[in-house]
């Protein structure tokens, strides 16, 4: 999980410099320490929205990624880019020590692995890296339905993250997001080619959904609040939607008939394995989906409402894929 403590100047944290004149680690660390905000998970849908929102407001940020190539876009936008392995606690701490406020998004593990185990490992590394990091405030990305439990995917892992952050003593805001509209991105190909949107949910079942950009906007706003202003926040879209609504949105923008096609519950795990999930990952995803469908947790009465509708999201998705 972690490596032996070594002096900050000797830790192997890479910072992306220019192609012509790469900066030394020491120079980059000095530059990095001027960044107010650090974004963990900035190359994903939500993290990138947080980072972009802060840049749009003139803030100084460091984006943390494991892939230097993915960070080049952010360097061009004016951000400092730190390349580190989330499982290397000392690398993370070295980056954290260069900022004051931190957005935490636990990176998803590859579906071919035991995702719960891998994501728990990264949570432990993140929590350990916060010790002596100097971070003054945290905003952490979580999910609707976060709860204690085994083999329930993000619901259990992110609950453990929430609980762990609460024990650090660092002022923390938790941002629980609804079902990402971006989860439907993969359906674009089948909607376009076959007029089908595969779904594990009954087509008429409505659930809270949210566009990642709306989550990012809220996350950035929470980061900029006073240090001691914290709490548990929920964010979802303007209204709740069903798989049938997703199919209708695709049909509207594609100009063709599209239907939502349900996968029966008794073959969820088998179907997921056929799609490349490991046995453990498939079991966790199936159990998490069942909890969502059965709605065994309370939904918020007054969530923060994003402005991006499902139709607007799907329209932008289709146009970007043309």
TrEMBL record:
Superkingdom of the organism of origin: Bacteria
Protein name (record): Uncharacterized conserved protein YbjT, contains NAD(P)-binding and DUF2867 domains
Gene3D superfamilies, per the entry: NAD(P)-binding Rossmann-like Domain, UDP-galactose 4-epimerase, domain 1
A Pfam family assignment: NmrA
SUPFAM superfamilies documented for this protein: NAD(P)-binding Rossmann-fold domains (SSF51735)
Species of the source: Spirosoma fluviale
Record-annotated NmrA-like domain positions: 38-297
InterPro entries: Ergot_Alk_Oxidoreductase, NAD(P)-bd_dom_sf, NmrA-like
